[in-house]
Design brief:
7 helices, Rossmann fold, binds zinc ion, alpha/beta, 240 residues, 7-stranded mixed beta sheet
Length: 240
């Protein structure tokens, strides 16, 4: 299977579903992660241009730990809007390039505008990308307009699980250590979360995975919700 996970900022995917993605790689799937934004505003002191480079390196390192290809959506922080063609086409380009069997992204009800905009953009682009006669204005990753398949979307957990009731779980007990290692690659964000949100990042993520584990009889787990709309249903279990 080919799996495309699209998160707003470098680290969102690691927080919500990297234990699952690591398991997918282990069972033989091709996993591509797209960080939509460069993450340029995620620090109190480091200026955006410098931070961008740091975060790209952190994200690459995190992906390589689990055998995941890392690509970029081409936006900056707080500059993701879901109501224009250029933005949608950037996601169409990514989806057509990855040609996934399953897409994972943010829940529409997450906590900040980049997350909710990405959720909507991915939803819109995932349909658009399947139309053979749709001319995409962005060709950063693709060279032509070969359509993608119409596939299910699974929403990953929100930050700290707020307003999110999973309808499916993945046991990540075997990959929880790798998940925390991947998260730890985002060194700039561990500092940012401490200074801006006053939290211990790794502890929060591990605790949330433990909490989801309690809900499904596993030591550690990650939760997902399927996007239930016309043509996006499936009878198959796609996650490990
Ligand atoms: Zn984020």
């Amino acid at each position: 299977m080919r799996i495309l996970a699209i998160g707003a900022h470098p680290d969102d995917i690691e927080i919500a579903c990297s234990g699952t993605l690591a398991k997918c790689v282990q069972r033989g799937d091709t996993v591509i992660v797209c960080h939509v934004s460069s993450g340029d505003l995620g620090h109190v002191i480091i200026p955006p241009e410098e931070l961008k480079v740091m975060r790209a390196n952190e994200a690459k390192k995190a992906g390589s730990l689990a055998g995941i290809e890392v690509i970029w959506g081409g936006f900056n922080d707080l500059d993701i809007y879901d109501n224009n063609k250029e933005a949608r086409d950037k996601m169409v380009d990514v989806i057509r390039y990855a040609n996934p069997d399953l897409i994972i992204t943010h829940d529409p009800d997450d906590y900040m505008p980049d997350h909710t905009a990405v959720s909507k953009l991915v939803f819109d682009a995932s349909f658009t990308a399947t139309l053979p006669n749709y001319k995409c204005s962005v060709h950063k990753y693709t060279t032509d307009d070969t359509p993608a398949k119409l596939v299910p979307i699974y929403y990953m957990d929100t930050l700290a699980g707020v307003n999110f009731n999973p309808t499916m779980f993945v046991d990540v007990s075997e990959t929880i250590d790798l998940k925390i290692q991947m998260l730890s690659c985002h060194e700039s964000q561990i500092v940012w979360m401490r200074d801006h949100d006053h939290i211990d990042f790794c502890d929060m993520v591990k605790t949330c995975s433990r909490y989801r584990g309690y809900q499904c009889g596993a030591e550690y787990a990650e939760g997902f919700k399927q996007c239930q709309v016309y043509l996006k249903g499936t009878t198959k279990r796609l996650l490990p």
